[in-house]
Amino acid sequence: MPSHTVLPRWRKMLALALSLCLSWSCQRGQEPAPSPEPLDTMAFIAAADISKYPEMEASWPTFYTQDGRPGDFLEILQSSGVNTIRLRLWVDPQNGHSGLEEVEAFCQRLRAMGFRLWLALHYSDTWADPGRQEMPARWQSLDFARLKDSVHAYTRHVAERLQPEIIQLGNEINSGFLHPAGHLALHPQQFRTLLSTAAQAVRAASPTSKILLHFAGIENADGFFQQVADLDFDLIGLSYYPIWHGKNLSLLQTTLKQLARHKPVVIAETAYPFTLGWNDWTTNLVGLPEQLILPEYPATPQGQRDFLKKIKAIVQETPRGAGLCYWGAEWTAWKGPTATDGSPWENQALFDFDHRALPALRVFKPD
User: Fold this and answer.
1) Exposed, middle or buried, 40 (CB in 10 Å: 0-12/13-18/19+)?
2) Is-catalytic flag, 172?
3) Is residue 1 domain-resident?
4) What is the SS3 assignment for 54?
5) Which of these, 165, 285, 291, 314, could form a disulfide with 116 (CB 3.0-4.6 Å)?
6) Which 8-state DSSP code applies to residue 348?
7) Active-site choice (102, 165, 269, 346)
8) Rounded to an integer, what distance in angstroms lies between the CA atom of residue 236 and that of residue 241?
């Protein structure tokens, strides 16, 4: 952990509140936005993951409303019904993006606008998913006792500084996290210990935050959450992408109902293409008709909207279905039409190739 000055919690919260109020007043010339509504009182989490946006914003992309008017990207999301923003957090990212400094600055802006915050701790310096749970470089030489202490200190530090409404411990932790020490198949008790340690840190530093555990896909989801049912957490998060997790929406609905026996459940990640076309020279992850759910959901703006509307309906029809999050809403071809390192997600964003809001954004509006 980097060294930092520890202030009494009430002084830190007061200083942050005053800073945000002054910043908002200077920028807007009006009273600050109301505080986000607590999760316990809001019926549905309508979230977008826009973790790439702070990096993209430096290139000054212009976004447009559905009727073609230029507008502020965050305001377009908010006016479309998005009430929660999900952001990933990496421990020591190589280029600083998705690190604590960038995420904290972005969270202050989001909080001032009234968004609720959903923080996804990857416990890695880079992407974490079922096939890759790489331990941060700073912790790789630690024995288990010191690793446990480091996880507690890091989690507490992050939770205390950002106070998110939702804090996700690990990302798509089907195989555990912090490999090899927290590998679920190899070291199941260590996996449980590390998760419990992280949860204890959240409860101490940000007791109003809801703790979410995140699994990718449908297969074995219920078995996984049976294994962790006695641990301390509040929400079940599930990734669902047809390209990786199958096209059976009835099975998705059945799985959500099974999971809801344990805890309230959210779709933590989903997305769908509005076209199979390309807008830069970066290979898209979804680009073939066989990757779609046809004929019900073609790769068109209407097909994307209908898919997201169906996912929302499935969640709403699930007992204790708590919400959904669209992943990569912002990830357009922001580096230009000839970039080979641009966006592999450009055709699944919620803005078209001209950065114009797509009809799927209307799904976030309350019914």
Assistant:
1) exposed
2) yes
3) no
4) helix
5) 165
6) T
7) 269
8) 17
Tokens 């968004």 found at:
115
On average, the pLDDT of the chain sits at 91
What CATH number has the domain bearing residue 294?
3.20.20.80
pLDDT band at 197 (very low <50, low <70, confident <90, very high): very high
User: Percent of the chain at pLDDT above 70?
Assistant: 88
Structural domain including 314 reads 45-364
pTM, full prediction:
0.89
pLDDT above 80 (res 40) = no
> CA 135, CA 111: separation in Å to the nearest integer?
30
**What's the mean pLDDT in 194-200?**
98
Question: Which DSSP string corresponds to 162-187?
Answer: H--SEEEESSS-TTBSSBTTTBTTT-
Beta strands in 159-247 (DSSP E): 166-169, 210-216, 235-239
pLDDT class for 61, splitting at 50, 70, 90? confident
Domain membership of residue 266 (yes or no) is: yes
Known catalytic residue: 269? yes
Q: Catalytic pick from 160, 172, 330, 346?
A: 172
Number of domains, the chain: 1
Rounded to whole angstroms, the Cα distance separating 212 from 137 reads 25
Q: Following DSSP, what letter does each residue of 34-48 receive, concatenated?
A: PPPPPGGG-S-EEEE
